[in-house]
Design goal:
Strand content: 15-25%
Low-confidence stretches: 328-350
Order of helices and strands: HEEEHEEHEHHHEHEHEEHHHEE
Number of helices: 11
Largest sheet: 8 strands, mixed
Structural class: alpha/beta
Length: about 350
């Protein structure tokens, strides 16, 4: 079975550079490397999460996949077809299969339109239905996300943050997409509302057989919703494996430092906090060798000279670190990754 047959999305060496211009003639003098050659694959009906500090390139990755921002290079294969080969006009036909839910629901909703108009607009645009049929589709999706018929004639400003996010979810799912990218979709909500929205998303995923790319910096949330996790730093992938393995046995020093910062609810569990030295480097002038070496407590001379390969060091566990170098056996470096199966949908506790 080839890669395309067992993945719904396959990202290969994706890069996104932003030019920096200077001088009187505004010539390009350098580039900000927001996404710097990352690769990962997502299988149907799974949740793959991207985590990392603010500015590591998570959100840019999501927007570049959907071509909300054009990539500098790389491939994005959706069901075996490279999305970068489509013209902008041709890509519009794929929009209904690829949807995105943003962090701020208010700024992503037209304040002049009612909820009914907001939900009906994509149906009419893609000519899925009209008249009474379109109206019934709107009512059905509203009920699925917890909105009543009476609320359909209100405007976005009349709702709370959690209700507005329900509207955004309904708008994204009304076209029956196959892949949904959630860009910090619950980070702006209160904790109790976060739990409700996360449980709603997981219920809808099971009911509608959706695939999620979940982008977040909240490691507690990621642990509850994800099948597999990719850890990004300075636009590059540092570690990737299934969720249980990542949280039980993190290998990369950066992942270890992130997980050590998660607050413990057990007063008797006093884990050691790993404090990173220095600041995140400038993505326009990244360090040589390993991008994490300037802050890594385990860095050595080789880290400054040679960039570590992103390779499999255990079953379905990939890491870019010289501490686990297996360059003497390059055949272990995979093309794609199969996720661990998820047997049931977990409920997020408040």
């Amino acid at each position: 079975m080839n890669v395309e047959e067992r993945t719904i999305l396959d990202v290969r060496e994706l890069t996104k550079y932003y030019p920096q211009k200077s001088g009187i003639f505004k010539r390009t003098s350098n580039y900000v490397r927001a996404v710097d050659g990352i690769s990962f694959a997502i299988r149907p009906k799974e949740t793959f999460s991207l985590v990392g500090e603010s500015g590591c390139g998570k959100s840019t990755t999501g927007k570049t996949i959907l071509r909300l921002q054009e990539p500098t290079s790389g491939q994005v294969l959706f069901k075996g077809k490279d999305l970068m080969d489509y013209s902008k006009r041709e890509f519009r036909s794929l929009r209904k299969d690829l949807q995105m839910i943003f962090q701020d629901p208010y700024s992503s909703l037209n304040p002049r339109m009612t909820v009914r108009q907001l939900l009906k607009e994509p149906i009419l645009t893609h000519r899925m239905a009209n008249g009474k049929e379109a109206e019934q589709i709107v009512i059905d999706i509203a009920e699925k996300v917890g909105l009543s018929r009476e609320q359909l004639d209100r405007h976005p400003h009349e709702f709370s943050g959690g209700q507005r996010q329900r509207i955004s979810i309904a708008r994204a799912l009304i076209l029956k997409p196959e892949l949904v990218i959630l860009d910090e979709a619950v980070s702006a909500l209160d904790v109790s509302i976060q739990a409700q929205i996360l449980n709603l998303l997981m219920d809808l995923q099971e009911e509608l057989e959706l695939t999620y790319l979940f982008i977040s910096h909240d490691l507690n949330v990621v642990k509850h919703v994800s099948d597999r996790v990719g850890v990004m730093y300075l636009g590059q992938m540092m570690e990737m494996t299934d969720t249980e393995q990542l949280y039980d046995n993190p290998l990369h020093p950066y992942t270890q430092s992130l997980l050590s910062a998660i607050p413990s609810t057990d007063p008797f569990n006093k884990k050691e906090r790993i404090i990173l030295k220095g600041d995140v480097p400038d993505p326009a002038n990244p360090p040589s060798g390993c991008p994490f070496r300037l802050r890594c407590p385990k860095a050595h001379d080789r880290c400054a000279i040679e960039k570590p390969a992103f390779q499999e060091v255990a079953a379905d566990h990939f890491v870019a670190c010289h501490l686990y170098d297996q360059s003497e056996n390059p055949e272990q470096v995979p093309v794609s990754i199969e996720p661990a199966a998820r047997t049931e949908t977990p409920e997020v506790e408040v």
